User: Which sequence fits this backbone?
């Protein structure tokens, strides 16, 4: 339906159409004027082509041409089955190109900047960040890194700075298989676990597919599957109820299960051996692939965790994701994935589209550091240092009055302290004060697919040297106390003050 | 329609359905048996649910359950509006998980392994490759690289090995803006130009959108836009007819134009200044954004090329892509993109999904090499060396009898010799012989969207040291001569011999 009121709104209600220029141009210009003046707001839905054609007594082709003209200029966008919507105002002179209207439908699902903001804070010297997950870097084996680099360059400068295979350099694939299990041809070298998630989402998830994820679970995974158009269903990791999972699978027929069963991000929880066996058997029986994110396995603080799902899997049902970001350094941007050959093949084809191969020199250096034992010596140092940092952070939080305000379970691996606020306090309220204290953490909501987690927050203890824990804990507790005071104060009063 | 013949083919034609187990399981198992034995081949279309339900006299829900069961196990896949197809055979025991059937519809568009194969050859010591594009690497400024690295680590080890912002480290964005023009906030640091193409395709191209590309044009770009579901239309770069382009735009309403106007890959052609002005004005008038791939700009062999489209653009209609892969080293995996801020913002959100940031240390090193002049000194050396290699390759091809068999235009920039075979000879026929000679080039077809180019081939001269040009040219001409002899020989004879 398109009545006179609507025609007037479109700027097309005043008299007959002109005969001197193409009618479609006249219509397009009238609508453009409406967009420019703001009469037609962003997301305003234009009349259906058929209806507008009827109301103006022109052919439908004329309206199609007018809408196309507007679409070409980025001012409107048509969506099959939904209609045509105003997508951008013409920009002010000097930047006349309405770029926003050109953005593809799938890309606009990527509007969550959580990871980017994490990284921005992590690199901002004016903010004390316990948001991004980073191991201790102060003891990074710089000399070994430099020696490995020199050897690599001396061995083959053309290889070091030249092209390499998409799957990864053989020397690194072999070192990974030897150190972490599996065969070199099952290994795909990546720019980090996040790239693996993105490739897997692109490879396996069609829009509308269901994916079962940890609840709470790694925010980057939730974000990536979301952006792929998946419907996310959370499996409660702390309750670890296998019947619940079987129900979820039967009910939603998920395309895959994403889980981080070892020193889980964010909770620090580790799945017991028996449950690992049961989960594997359930997934094999119901034929649902598992993506096992094993990022934190090596970062135990007391005893090594149970074996990975991947190492127990006899049915090739598990894809294993790992990274050097936490067990060595995030700045290296190297990770890997182990899977059955048909999946490695398909993922390599997808990877070459965006990122044909990882830097060869970086791969050669890391391979060398694994083979010559630097990687494992550094890991042992990291475990000691992380234990010290965990205890320092917990001690400092307690000294600054966390009791009765902030609770946690002491983690025995991973990089995080997963905290729960007492009473009615929300992490978002604490965050407002934290920004004033120049300290950044991650709010619990980011880890849930269902708007839960508002009283939880994640602190990365491993990135804070022990001698700085006191300052960080002090800022955090000042933020908690500030938020508590707001709660106690009637909000009108706050507004006046 | 589903008749008796089809029921028999499905293994469901022999008598009444059993009463002892769920009917849907019986149906699923019958179809699975058919898939296992090969009676139902890959891509076989199962009857519509409604039809099979009617033929078997069961409810449609039963068929839906049976098909879902098969789909969950990766054996069939349903596509809305098209039907349900056999997607994989159950794998042999030991690898029981039918992964192939799990691959998403969009991912299967990525089946072109051309780039991956290029890279594989480039890193394979048993093959002499003039396929992948690489600058001379033998003179890479290793000492300056090491010195820059030491300075970066000494300055800030936590930054060097830690997290960084998605858009790139400020120090590199500033160095790029200063050296190549523009402002730091218009720069997005990438893993190479290919990542920029992928991000742009994901950001701007909806399946079904048209993209105008150079004809012939960079194969990675064709591949990426193809994989994004675009319809590709070629604009003939050698004819450079602006009326033709205007026709293409009016006819196909493309979402964008991709062009590589300076020492074009593969032809070496450079767009004259006047045509650049006309192209810009056309694109602004018709509101079609241009992606300008400026990868080879710095690699002129005689005189500098005309200014980039991007530097002449007053309407923000051009997105500029560039990389350090050709002007420094491909193994660094660093490139960048310059665009209007709304596009940088959207691309950074997309990038964080797969590749949250580039390695900080590598960024710090390259920034340092730009600022201290190493980059430009190395470029001057590269130009001299590439001139020498171009002349050596051309001389060697001529000595080995290229006249009358292989023609080219001498390039005055870029890395490639774009060759045309004489007579009826096809590059695919030459390639067969080239593999026996252990030499790899790229066939012309890879650069065309329309199956043309079968008599053309691309040789990267810059990766071959002058003293090895003779050997490479000898192998190439032996392959050409071998293919010519085949042509002269009736094919029956070849089969007998």
Assistant:
């Amino acid at each position: 339906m398109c009545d006179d009121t609507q025609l007037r709104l479109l700027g097309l209600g005043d008299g007959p159409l002109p005969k001197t220029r193409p009618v479609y141009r006249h219509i397009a210009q009238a609508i453009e004027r409406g967009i420019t003046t703001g009469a037609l707001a962003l997301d305003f839905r234009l009349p259906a082509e058929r209806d507008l054609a009827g109301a103006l007594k022109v052919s439908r082709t004329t309206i199609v041409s007018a809408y196309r003209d507007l679409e070409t200029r980025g001012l409107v966008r048509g969506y099959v089955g939904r209609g045509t919507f105003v997508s951008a105002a013409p920009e002010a002179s000097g930047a006349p190109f309405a770029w926003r209207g050109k953005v593809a439908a799938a890309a606009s699902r990527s509007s969550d900047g959580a990871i980017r903001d994490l990284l921005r804070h992590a690199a901002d010297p004016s903010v004390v960040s316990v948001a991004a997950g980073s191991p201790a870097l102060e003891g990074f084996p710089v000399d070994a890194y430099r020696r490995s680099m020199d050897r690599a360059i001396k061995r083959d400068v053309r290889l070091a700075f030249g092209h390499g295979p998409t799957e990864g350099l053989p020397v690194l694939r072999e070192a990974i298989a030897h150190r972490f299990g599996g065969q070199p041809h099952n290994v795909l070298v990546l720019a980090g676990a996040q790239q693996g998630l993105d490739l897997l989402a692109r490879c396996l998830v069609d829009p509308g597919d269901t994916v079962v994820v940890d609840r709470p679970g790694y925010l980057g995974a939730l974000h990536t599957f979301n952006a792929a158009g998946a419907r996310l269903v959370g499996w409660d990791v702390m309750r670890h109820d296998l019947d619940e999972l079987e129900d979820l699978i039967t009910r939603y027929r998920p395309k895959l299960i994403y889980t981080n069963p070892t020193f889980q991000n964010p909770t620090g929880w580790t799945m017991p051996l028996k449950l690992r066996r049961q989960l594997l058997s359930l997934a094999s029986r119901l034929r649902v692939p598992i993506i096992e994110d094993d990022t934190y396995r090596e970062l135990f603080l007391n005893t090594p965790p149970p074996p990975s799902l991947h190492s127990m899997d006899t049915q090739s049902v598990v894809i294993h994701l790992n990274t050097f970001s936490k067990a060595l350094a995030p700045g290296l941007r190297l990770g890997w994935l182990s899977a059955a050959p048909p999946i490695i093949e398909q993922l390599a084809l997808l990877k070459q589209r965006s990122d044909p191969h990882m830097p060869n020199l970086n791969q050669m250096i890391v391979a060398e550091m694994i083979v010559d034992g630097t990687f494992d010596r550094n890991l042992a140092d990291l475990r000691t240092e992380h234990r010290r940092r965990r205890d320092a952070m917990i001690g400092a939080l307690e000294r600054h009055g966390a009791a009765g305000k902030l609770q946690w379970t002491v983690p025995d691996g991973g990089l995080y302290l997963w905290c729960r606020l007492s009473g009615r306090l929300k992490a978002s309220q604490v965050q407002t004060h934290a920004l004033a204290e120049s300290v950044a953490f991650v709010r619990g909501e980011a880890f849930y697919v269902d708007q839960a987690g508002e009283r939880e927050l994640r602190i990365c203890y491993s990135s804070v040297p022990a001698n700085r824990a006191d300052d960080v804990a002090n800022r955090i507790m000042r933020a908690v106390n500030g938020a508590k005071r707001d709660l106690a104060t009637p909000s009108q009063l706050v507004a006046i003050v």
About this structure: Chain B touches chain A through 98 residues (CB under 8 Å). The longest helix of chain B spans residues 374-399.
